[in-house]
Amino acid sequence: MAEQGVRIEDRGAVRIITIDRERRSNALDVAASEAIDQAVDAAERDPAIRVVLLTAAGERSFCAGMDLKEAAERGPGHGLVPGRGFAGITERRRTKPLIVAANGAVVAGGFELALAADIVIAADHAIFGLAEVKRGLFAFAGGVQRLARSVPRATALHIVLTGEPIGAARALELGLISEVVPRDRLMPRAIELAETIAGFDRDTVRRALALHDFAADAPIAESLSFGRAYGEETLGGLATQEGIRAYAEGRAE
Predict the structure, then answer these.
(1) Could you tell me the pTM of the whole model?
(2) Which residues is 129 bridged to in the sheet?
(3) Which of 34, 59, 70, 112 is catalytic?
(4) Which of 114, 139, 165, 214 is the most exposed place for a label (fewest CB within 10 A)?
(5) 10-14: which pairs have CB atoms within 8 A and are 24 or more residues apart?
(6) For residue 159, which of 191, 200, 127 has the smallest C-alpha distance?
(7) Active-site residue 232, yes or no?
(8) Which of 9, 70, 91, 132 is catalytic?
């Protein structure tokens, strides 16, 4: 898929997807958006892949969102995959964890990708913003909606209505990202986290992710009932029994 502006590498149970359009600030044209969608789709179907890691080439930009030069020629919105959103990620229901390694400017649709991820590791020089308002647009592919659920109203609307970016430290303070590291530690740390998660029991990780996402949208009584059913299923599993036995016997996890 290199000719589509996307590189894919499988590192054991981790699929690394790299946006490789550095000359366009890693903005996504239709081909790159579809390539990411296909790569994530294939990872979801492949039992050997446990975690997906999304990053980009260079240190200047993670993703500048939609390729505006292409949009000027073809019209905006062509990078939206029906039923799955921008790059096939922002509306997708996933069963496997998605980690974003943000290596620079994370703006517009790029920020929407990060907001849709499960874990975001950012280089200390990264910035985050929704610049669509400057182009007569707004971040309807998940940016506005997820900010509304994640931060106070005034904070969200400052980001949405001004288009002004915030730094990595501020994004961490707001809980929009998981961790900030020096730029030379970004990929080693992201890979370390991905491989750690990939080393855990697949069904346990899948259920924990599903329960979190269910609980985020459901009343507490429903999410507790859902969690109990999932938990009881997990308690009877071999991974749980072995994990408890290993702890009781003082063995390594």
Answers:
(1) 0.86
(2) 107
(3) 112
(4) 214
(5) 10/48, 10/49, 11/191, 11/195, 12/195, 12/198, 13/48, 13/49, 13/50, 13/51, 13/195, 13/198, 13/199, 14/49, 14/50, 14/51, 14/52, 14/53, 14/191, 14/194, 14/195, 14/198
(6) 127
(7) no
(8) 132
For residue 188, give every residue at least 6 positions away whose Cβ sits within 8 Å of its Cβ, in sequence order, or none: none
One pLDDT digit (tens) per residue for the chain, 253 residues? 556 899 999 999 999 999 999 888 898 988 899 999 999 999 999 999 999 999 999 999 999 888 767 767 676 556 688 888 889 999 899 999 999 999 999 998 899 999 999 999 999 999 999 887 777 677 677 778 898 889 999 999 999 899 899 999 999 999 999 999 999 999 999 999 999 999 998 888 888 888 887 878 877 887 777 677 766 666 566 655 655 565 455 666 5
Return the bridge partners of 180, or none.
122
